[in-house]
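Per-record layout

source: Saccharopolyspora endophytica
name: Site-specific integrase
length: 495
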Amino acid sequence: MTERKKKSGRRVPGSVFPRGRKWAYKFYGPPDILTGERPEIRQSGFETEDDAWEAMLIARGALATETYVKPSRQTVSTFFESWFSYVRTTTEATTAANYENLARYYVLPIIGNRRMQDITPSVVAALYEHLLTKARLDQPNTNWEMYQLWKGAQERKENLRIREIAEKTGVTYAGARKAVRRYEVGRVPAEPQVGYAPKTVHSVHIMLGSAFSTAKAWSVVGANPMESVKAPSQVRRPHKTWSPGQMARFLEAARADRFYALWVLVASTGMRRSELCGLTRDGLDLSASGGATLRMNVTSVVAGGKVVSGGGKSKKSRRPVALDRYTTAVLTEHLERLDSERAAFGSGYQDNGLVFCWENGGRIYPDTITEKFNALVDRVSLPLITLHGVRHSYATIALRSGVHPKVVSSRLGHATVAFTLDTYAEDVPELDRDAAEDIGRLFLPKAPGEQAVVPGAGGEPETRNEEAIVQFLRALPAQYRQVLLERERQSEDAE
């Protein structure tokens, strides 16, 4: 054993000694607060004597600041397996499933065999660089392969059977058939790129932050490396959205669909898919004296391939939302049909209390809603957007119409108004332009050639909000226009 002196001449408590072909250290920790016994702390596996001395000094410093953890050879994969079980019992089902998928797909194949205590900020940074610039080099992309086969046959004017595509790419016949239908209406995949998108790596960053916070709390690691690593920067791009006229065209095309009320509701409130699928009749109050409202307390989401109920994305997502008269009329008619179906099925009806369900009351698989939406969009030949894109469309239409951002944020269930404005800043750049003009008119003289604007002059709507409403009403089915007009007359008579 060897001892070392500090520069001051005092001896450093502890010793370093060779162990096989490596070096180890040993020293005694502070007395136990109950027994008074001093535990022996040791670790081996160092390449040089100096490495062992330096590691012992770091360990003693960690003891002094109460951040010391016992040396462990637990690997990243071993820790994450126990962490998955913990997350399943402490978070929403979708969060747990997403975290597990992110870890198994992007992290464990790369650093899973390393020890948890060897993961430093530089290791995490190197992982991010690999995911952004080198990943996906050898990973198959069956969607792209199917598209290339289909596109080549189209260019050669050959009749390529769906079964041939399935056999050549190793997918099921049903999968190949769905893919071909997507390609035929213009839903084609993007060419595979080397590396993952910054948004994907940002999700990995959030997951690792949660995992290493738990690891530190469990004394698996002495310090959380994620505290010294930043997530990759993301470039915000405008969302793909519809105009009020395009939204009206979609609703007109969906008028005969069983879930027409669902499409109206998502268009008029911007609700999430999980909120639509989980909406219960108890959450509706269509006859309230102050106007119809709904409250979202339950969501229906897919986690691990199964449909489960959740409590919403955040506290703000569990919110009341006021409903307009048209949406109220459509929902009232929809509920009447549900009552008729319940009576027709009798004891065989599956009464889950859901607003949107099958004829027998059975739950709708959320992905089925997405498939139905895509089919309707393809039939109308509208710009291709996702179902979540309708939510973005609602937000941008509301902001452009002059609705206060606080109201928009509240109706969407966002955590803060700042998040709403940051999310849609690229979609509604005219907000900044309008602000400049409105503020300038308060104290600046008119620009040369500028004429005063008289609201409502020339028969034009006084606000962008009225313009959007007029455009929407013109495209409504006649029967619902009549309902709205009748309700308006009744309201005027009451006054």
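summary: Confidence is low (pLDDT under 50) at residues 6-10, 454-464. DSSP finds 19 helices and eight strands in the chain.
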